[in-house]
User: What shape does this take?
Amino acid sequence: MGRMWVAAIGDETLYEVDLPSCCRRTAWGVEDSFDCPVCGAEWQAPLPFEPEECAFVERSGEGERKGAA
Ligand SMILES: [Zn+2]
Assistant: This one.
């Protein structure tokens, strides 16, 4: 019972038990990532290995200005 989640914003890493209760409920049964419908926080499962390519893609994604929807 010790999964970890990484905040999509801020790179904060918390154990599942330390998540806000609303997020913890949402995390149930989630494998990869989720965004909490209650507080809007986005969480993702930490990657065991993070290639440089991924870091670059994430960084360039921050500057994206197009509205997705
Ligand atoms: Zn939440």
